Amino acid sequence: MSKLQTENGILSYTVSNGSVHITEYSGKDLIVTIPQVIEDMAVTHIKKKAFLSSRFVKEIHLPDTIRNIEDYAFARCRKLEKIYLPYVNMNLGQDIFIDCDKLDYIFDIRSNENSSEDVAYLLAKTINGLDAFFLFDLNNAGSDEWLLHLDSTIDMRMRKDDMEDFSKMILCGEEEVVCASDGTIEDSNPATYKSNRVKEKIRIAFMRLLHSYKLDEKLRETLVKYLINHTKGAKTEETWAVLQNEHGDDQKYYELLISIDAINKNNLNEILLDMGNAHTEMKSFLIRYFEDVKDETDIFAEFEL
User: Fold this and answer.
1) Strand boundaries in the chain, DSSP class E
2) Residue 260 carries which DSSP code?
3) Interval 188-228: pLDDT, tens
């Protein structure tokens, strides 16, 4: 086994049939770039568990010579956010990105299209947002057919009854918890269970609306309506809960809700109260944005930063 020094780590590799196989990475690099050629031979394989549980890597760049990524190659890379690889025919092993909870983008290194960021995001979310592994298709990602299947899957998820699987849950010894078929433990209160399913749909709606490349207009209307039906001031407020608790400092989420009237002058007062002393930049953004619609009672006076 041979070794190649990176800036803050080591890539181990073997040579087989005139090509290089990456077998292991160890180190503290934030960005790892694997070269196309080592020892005048093309790098073609990422072997089983090569990057397993790498604790520091946030970004990985693979060359367009790669044709085989084996089981668990990048599994449990908890900080991995982006990976660049060729969308080409290659052999993909089992669970290559399992437990990569922060993986947001899988980029095609050959693409310069304006759609590439949306497609890269949506492809990553087929793994850790939709759990739709059948849509993890490098060869067709971004095509009209792939997007149709993606949006059909999203539409089906959005229309699913929130309590459909509740009766399938099995009590796990204590009355206050239930176990799903995947081993997940949840509060057995029906209202809590339903709220969690609504939040899952909210996350899906955010995902697709914020990355709306070739989004079907009918599905857009469905997603927008769902967010509005659960915004601040509605009967249930999961839209606002997901934004506040998971994206509280990300302006694009606020801009989206403003654009669809899910944040408006009628619920702004309650939203600002909820924010309290947190998310001060976003609070300031909302106040500035709505200054032109404030009425004579000046609801902003008590929210000075």
Assistant:
1) 2-5, 9-16, 19-27, 31-33, 37-38, 41-46, 59-61, 68-69, 82-85, 91-92, 105-108, 170-172, 174-179, 185-187
2) T
3) 688 888 999 999 999 999 999 999 999 999 999 999 999 99
